Amino acid sequence: MKVAGLLMMPAGWFIVLAALVLLKAYLMQNLFMSAGVGVEVLGLILFALSHVPSKGGKE
Amino acid sequence: MSPQPFPAMPEISSAFCVVFILLLPLAVAGLALINTGLSRSRSAAHSMMASLCVIGVAATTCFVMGFAWQGYPGLPAHTLNVFGKEWSWLGAGRFFLRGVPLDGSPASLAALLQLFSVGLAALIPLGAGSERWRLRACCLSTALLAGITYPVFAHWVWGGGWLAQLGTNYGLGQGFLDAGGSATIQSVGGLTALSIVWLLGPRRGKYNPEGMPAALPGHNTVLVLFGCVLALVGWMGLNSAGSLLFVGAPLGRTVLVAVNTLLSAAGAGLAAAAITRYRFGKPDASLSANGWVSGLVASSAACAFLSPAVALLVGLVAGALVTYTVAWFEVRLGLDDPAGAVSVHALGGIWGILALGLFARTPAVAAITTAGYPAVMRGRQMLAQVVGVATLLGFVLPLTYSLNWLLNHFSPQRIPPEDERHGADLHELGAGAYPEFMTHTDELSPW
Predict the structure, then answer these.
(1) What is the ipTM of this complex?
(2) Does B365 have pLDDT greater than 80?
(3) N or C: more exposed end of chain A, with fewer CB within 10 A?
């Protein structure tokens, strides 16, 4: 989960960059950039959850 | 290829800019005091000592290589051709500030500002890792921040890099704008703090076996609140100097910058005090201080572009955001962040960046950024700000985490648990901050 989260963040960034470079229409650019940020946020959530200390473990 | 040079500043603006920059150490001192006050007394001397070391390492690294890679519009830079557009991606200056005439030119003023502001960014993770972060590791991590992460991102935003070029290359408003460093200083520092918190783990005794957090209150609220006042003065200098140097604001606009900075901090501090009063029956001093600083952080990006009423609103939102997220991060995500650095600097910074896209008065933006750009729709400016936030999450966070993860393998960053119980002062410095009054017990932590 940790590696997947870590990889999803740059993956989302590349989607944003691709939308910036390849798309001209404002709406499409907006949509794809939002999707890219969404992927980043998902990656961040996965990465954050993988760092939550386990219950019953040592502090 | 060199990015388009920044227009020369009138001599009077340069003189004021020097004064504004020389206020910045007060923000650094304020943050150091806040970090120290929010840690326990057994680590107070270590916190201040680490602050001094970190400021020194940051300034030295910036002098040696950081500013060479950061650059400034008009200084040499590496560029990349991306589908017919020139992307400036890294400064190509000479190390040791050679090639930057220290004569009051905008480039030299930017170099001076960076020597201080990179120290400010490096203090942010120090608050998050306090009481358990080795002194040597603090210094090495700061060298990575000041030598790699910070200058690369700062080049993209302040050095005429591809984020700053989003306006000219892709028609996204005026490109990514960040007058006082909500992104470049605060969010970069805040995301590094997040990485450090993840890598170090929680302090000993912070969580019980069921995963519930214990309150480990800071040892000196007076230091914290005094730090907030110092930070306000320093931030006014930072925002004013940044507005002059990085978005081309005229000198007169620094009045608006100071008013906005104060109102944003006031709104955030009061919002945090009111919310904690409502939730807990009494206002919480440390959360109110966190709120105050988050208002300063959020004010930085758009300080030269907002009306005072909107700056107050930005502050109110920042204060509310911090109040709820500090507790949420601690309880739900297991983030033990004694200074609330992730909420205050990373989230507050991102809110400031987006607030510029949401609220900046477009004619004002067009009027004070580099002349010749057409007035644009607010939506396009917002898109540029979103690309900046995406870069922070998709590039800066993975980079800073990976660098610190590697560092942790070569030089363990955390103080051993048994030594942590006695406090970082004894372990790292051999003596405490308050030797006549200090007791080394875990009276506040039953675990």
Answers:
(1) 0.95
(2) no
(3) N
